[in-house]
Amino acid sequence: MKRVLLMRFSALGDVAIAAPLLYAYASVHSDVYFYVCTQAAFKPIFDRCPGNVHVLPALLKTTHRGLFGLWRLSGEMHALAPDAVCDLHDVLRSRLIGFFLRLRGYSVFRIDKGRADKKRLVRKRHKVFKALPTSLQRYQHVLEAAGLTLPMPISSFSPLRLSVGEVDVEALFGRKTTLWIGVAAFARHLGKRYPLERMESVLDALDAHSDYSVFLLGAGKDEKEQMQKWVERWPRLRMAGKNLHEDLTLMQHLDLLLTMDSANMHLGAMMGTRVLSIWGATHPNAGFTAWNQRAEDQIQVEMNCRPCSVFGNKPCFRNDYACLHRIEPTHIVKRIETCLNEKK
Description:
Layout: E1 2-7, H1 12-28, E2 32-38, E3 53-57, H2 66-80, E4 84-87, H3 92-103, E5 108-110, H4 115-122, H5 135-145, H6 169-173, E6 179-184, H7 196-207, E7 212-216, H8 221-233, E8 238-239, H9 244-253, E9 256-260, H10 263-270, E10 275-278, E11 298-299, H11 322-325, H12 329-343
Parallel strand pairs: 1-2, 1-4, 2-3, 4-5, 6-7, 6-9, 7-8, 9-10, 10-11
Helix pairs in contact: 1-5, 1-10, 2-3, 7-12
C-alpha cells in the first residue's frame, strides 16, 4: 500500500484547511495511507477522517525541538517509508526536515505560497487586487504533484461530521430546543478583531431573541476572562466546550457560526456548519477563505486600502482600522437573522 506523508505544523486554522482535502483524498484513495505530521493538540481535527489517515505528532517544544530534534523527527518519518513527502508549510522547520529526507532519498513536494503575489496584494500603493488561489487549492496542487488526483471537485464531498450517536451532545450542551448560534469573537491579530464594544451590541441583540441560544467560543486566558464577563452580563449566553474535541462537536450542531477571519472559521466550515465571517485588514482575495464558504457570508467593507495585511498583523495604513469600525452591528445581526430564517 502506498504511503504519503504531509507536514503542516501550524497554525490551527491552516491545519484545519487541510482536513476536508485529506478527507476527500483518503475517501477516494482507500489504498493509500496518509500520515499527517502536525502538533499533537491538533489531532482531533483529523479524528473524523477515514481510517487510512493517521497523525504523526510533532513535539516541537520537547522531543523534536531544535536541529537535533528535527533530525529525530525526520528519522520517525523515515521509519514510515513514505512514497512521497508533501510539505504544506514551507517554513524553516519543514525545509530542514525536507532536506534531511532528501538525503535519505525521498521525493519532497513543497507548497507554493505565492508570497510575491500576496505582497503585491497588500502593499500600500499600486496594489494588484485579484483573487489568489486558496490555501486549500495550493495544498491540492502539492498532492497532485505527488501523483494523487481527485475525480471530482472537493466541494462535492461531505463535511467531516460525526455519525448520530457517536457522541452525547445533549450531555455536553443540553437538549436543543432553540436555534444554536456560535460566536467566536476573537482573533490573534488586531487587524482581524471586530471591536469588542461593537461585538457586545451584537450579543445584546442576539440575547433578546428567546428562540436563540448563543455559545461563546475562545481559547486562552484573556479570551476566557472576556467570555466570562459576557456570561455574567447576559446569563443566557453559554461557554463552548472545554477542549478542541468538544468545540468541534458543538460546531457540528450549530445552526450558524459567527467568526473573525480566524481558526474557528475553518473549523466550523470543515464541520459543515454555515459560517458568517467578519473581515477587516485581511481580505478573502489573499486565499484564506474557508472551505465551501459563501461570498455573501463574508462580512466586510470594501476600501481602497484593503487588504493591508495578509495575516492581520501589520499596522493599519490609516491608524484607525476603519475597515472594522465601519461594519455596523445592526448589519451583522440582520445577516444572522437572514441566514437563520433560511433554515426555517
